[in-house]
Design brief:
Largest sheet of chain A: 7 strands, mixed
Structural class of chain A: alpha/beta
Largest interface: A-B, 90 and 90 residues
Mean pLDDT of chain A: 96
Low-confidence stretches of chain A: none
Radius of gyration of chain A: 21 Å
Distance between the termini of chain A: 53 Å
Strand content of chain A: 5-15%
Helix content of chain A: 25-40%
Number of strands of chain A: 15
Oligomer: homodimer
Chain lengths: ~400, ~400
């Protein structure tokens, strides 16, 4: 038989969220009448707003007409959508042909890893979104797993904890080719300041590294001093790729629409524009985001759509406030949740999976064990603010009553 | 700076279809009033039919309601859709949990290549759909390019020409890990018989290879003796993955919906089910097809939708007949186009790109140069049967009048 990909054999257990779902299903089976509330995976729950919904509906309808039908479009996305993202979301900091529309940030991360190949050395924040590491392991950009350390060999983990204000100590960080950095952060909810991002960009420049900046939660930033995109930082166009998404602001987790920015100034050692290779990857192994979803994205960037996105995010930020206040009343130290949809709660002296199990068993609330995002997440629980208000309030009540 | 992925440096020029579009744009600029007709890329042109359109519209509308909203679904696709594909399209030859719904066949090929990794040796039909080779080059499963031969090192090319009835001489084919095989074939339009596929399956079994069977054009088969899926062949479940798509039958090239079948019997040398690794790839690096597209797929598999798909394909098959007859009247030898949307036309003694340029310059018709699909395609032109009937008839008229 064919030899199994040795890189796949390195991966530990399952992907985090399917594992959480498995445990949730088990508790549901044991308690068939229980109404389990999920504050686990960051999955949007609120209906799409009218302007965006109507655009999707109209796009579907038009596909049934001779004039409105469209088949394959440019793999890079609708010209109008690329232009509107550059203008309305980046205020001209990036150009339309640097914007690549896709079916989502997670998928683009996989394609970026394919583009970089197996020879690159990567750095990630610890804790971090699992796809940066897992995808790099799959593409061969890591060594084997050490269950003692909870780390993969060959990958640089940059601890981000309350002690360092969730920003890595770059002076102590060895040089790597690729640095994954997420702000507002999943899972900690921390948002890097302008000064911190300047330090990161300068560090990447000095070390000739590429930053993959995950800005999927950028629209949750309400503090105007905090940068929404890395391109607000001088010099970032020479060192950073930015990943972004309509998933959370427009409620498109199911509709599927994201985008990746690759500035023309970003180059490989042989002078090749990274943009050129990215274009090759996208045209060869991708066929464009759904035309219906792209029309929805266009509507989301119109004035009414922008208002609708703001309202949707306001709703989830209010949820975040309720969870944060509940945990604080319970005496739990929390981080994030003010400019991000995630609350990072510290259960001192305890193991993440134990707290996760306790909350699931006693309160029938699903959370995410912090250690699932990396060893530095041990002792933490991530609460997601995505949910119906009534469910959030019910979950808050149960947490207060059943835990501790 | 970061070292460029050495595998990407191996890729030749651009991806075929963007190159064709570039040449088309050039002719359009030089002849601004000309109406250029495309029989090039296999892009659907006919509007979606009412039953399928209404389902898409309803799906979009429901996303605007509390009850009908959905966010992330299972990465593998809607349970109901997986079941319906297994039942209605495969008549139970595959099981629902062997069906993985995706955003399209091209994207799934890229993910399969990520799963197989760089250590596998691959075989492709020559000519073939460029993504099998290009994606394998990107994932490091090839050597360098030989411009003299038009081949990448380390890849086995299996010539499929009129001389061998477009079926490879397997006795002379060296053993490889992965065999890409497409039937109905893109670009030749050839359909493998039951006996041929039996020979292929037996060959794979003997050599312990995995067949990646691309059945994206299976619904164009009208000759009931010809197998629509490789799972009609005994033993195929132990050796074959099948890729398929709603793009052509439902007109979903822009909507984006495909699926890949990975039977549980298919295993790696260490006994691991390929299905298990595929599930890991899909959950880690993909986030599901658009929920709207999936609802469209469900409707396409209802009785009315199945009728609509048949009507759509009838339309394109009639186009194919017109093109085929035109070329034959012109004295050009043609293949395919009866159970496939592609006509493979032999212009003896000439170079594909020369014929392509002549047809584009004189008749303002875009075709695809056969050599773009592999060295054995030299001297051939692929005509795609996707187009409005009036355009097909106009193109046929121009070909008769302007060429030769």
């Amino acid at each position: 038989m064919v030899k199994r990909n040795p890189d796949l054999t390195k991966l530990q257990a399952g992907y985090l969220f399917p594992e959480i779902n498995r445990r949730k299903r088990k508790v549901q089976e044991e308690n068939p009448k229980a109404k389990i509330i999920s504050l686990g995976v960051g999955n949007t729950t609120e209906p799409l707003k009218p302007h965006i919904t109507n655009a999707l509906k109209k796009a579907a309808e038009e596909l049934g007409t001779q004039e409105g039908y469209s088949g394959y479009g440019d793999e890079q996305g609708l010209t109008e959508l690329r232009a509107k993202i550059a203008a309305n979301l980046y205020g001209g900091l990036v150009k339309p042909d640097e914007v690549y529309v896709s079916d989502g940030a997670k998928c683009d991360i996989g394609r970026l890893q394919m583009m970089f190949g197996s020879h690159v050395k990567i750095a990630v924040q610890d804790p971090s979104y699992p796809v940066y590491v897992d995808g790099s392991v799959i593409t061969g950009a890591s060594g084997g797993y050490s269950s003692k350390k909870g780390y993969f060999g060959g990958i640089v983990y940059m601890p981000c904890t309350p002690q360092n204000g969730f920003f890595p100590d770059l002076k102590k960080t060895p040089k790597t080719d690729i640095i994954y950095f997420c702000s507002p952060n999943n899972p900690t909810g921390a948002v890097a300041s302008r000064e911190q991002l300047k330090e990161l960009v300068d560090y990447a420049k000095k070390n000739k590294s590429i930053i993959v900046f995950d800005a999927a939660y950028g629209e949750f930033i309400r503090d105007k001093r905090l940068p929404k995109t890395i391109y607000e930082i001088e010099g970032a166009r020479e060192v950073a790729i930015e990943i972004n998404s309509f998933s959370k602001p427009a409620g498109f987790t199911g509709v599927r629409l994201g985008y990746t920015i690759v500035p023309k100034e970003l180059k490989y050692d042989d002078g090749t524009e990274v943009n050129k290779d990215w274009n090759r990857i996208i045209t060869t192994l991708f066929n464009g985001a759904s035309n219906i979803a792209q029309k929805g994205g266009l509507a989301a960037l119109e004035r009414e759509g922008m208002t609708e996105m703001k309202e949707t995010i306001d709703y989830y930020l209010n949820n975040a406030r309720i969870i944060r206040e509940t945990l604080r009343e319970m005496g739990v130290t929390t981080y994030g949740g003010d400019n991000a949809p995630y609350i990072w709660a510290h259960f001192k002296g305890r193991k993440s999976w134990d707290v996760f199990e306790e909350i699931l068993d006693k309160a029938h609330v699903v959370s995410t064990p912090g250690v699932g995002f990396g060893p530095a997440g041990e002792g933490f629980i991530r609460f997601s603010a995505f949910g119906h208000r009534a469910d959030i309030e019910e979950a808050a009540k149960r947490l207060r009553e059943k835990i501790k």
